[in-house]
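Q: How would the structure tokens look for this protein?
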Amino acid sequence: MTAVPTYQVAEDRFGPERRPRTSAIVFAYEEEAALRQSLPSLLASKVDEIVIMYGGADGSRAYVESIRDPRVYAEFEPLRAGKWRAFNRAIEIVRGDIVFLVSGDIRFDSAVLEHLRQQFSDNVGVVFPRVVPTNIGNSVTQMGAALWDLHDGQIVECRRLGLPIHGGELQAVRKTILEPIDRVVNEDAYLCLRAWKRGFRVIYDRDAVISNTVPETMAEFIAQRSRVNYGHRQLASVGQDPSTLDRLVWTRPDICLRVVVQAVWDRPVNALRLPFLALVELVALTRGRRDFARRVDYSRWTLIRSGKKAPAHADD
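A: Here is the predicted structure in token form.
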């Protein structure tokens, strides 16, 4: 591993006539198995600079330190301080025009990053891909798969109607949009909404597909959804209104109906999964809003353990 490159961010205009510099930031904590799946694809890509923000007491450090690639710069965090702090530190380091924000537990083909980069022009601020879960086995993961189907349909419908869209797990972001955040939980949605309000386009590149896993236990699924709902409430409190189904059901019920119908049409088994998902989401929504009202600190949330080492197998 080498020191961070010293090249400067170029003028904030690029397109077909100039290939922008690219950087990638990987966020992971105690996710050695996940890093061993995601980093090889990143290393095989054309990214100019790779910054790894990681930590924990597992084998992550030995694995990352074994990487011999001149593009890689890594910072080890012995004590978990929260993703937002790692984010703030990382954006000071990177020098690319376009920055890929990568969750350490995803899997993707190395060509996906180039596909996302090619969507950029002078009026594009953020591009993000479609996410497909892979560990679909028990009733909990089936609800997780149904949730991603709804998320996909919701983004497509909001995009069609010209409403703000947002998504995470992997994002390609214009460097000038990356500014320090303070305890923001859903930084992926925040970045998309910030770009939107600044007049940039936010693109859902549905042809670019990445894989991730969903929690395999009900306790972890509810905990994850509570955190996400907490984060949405946090964004709303500072004037960043996310386009979520729990909000659209009151303002645009027609959108919600079309999203649900499409999810069942595309995958009929969702007709059985969605009623149970709705009950779980109601619990998570209540918990998230309650914790926000109580000022619970979600900046260092409980790590999700289940599903991280599960082998991939296809859904029906």
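The chain is about 45% helix and 15% strand.

Residues 1-11, 310-316 have pLDDT under 50 and may be disordered.

Upvote if useful.
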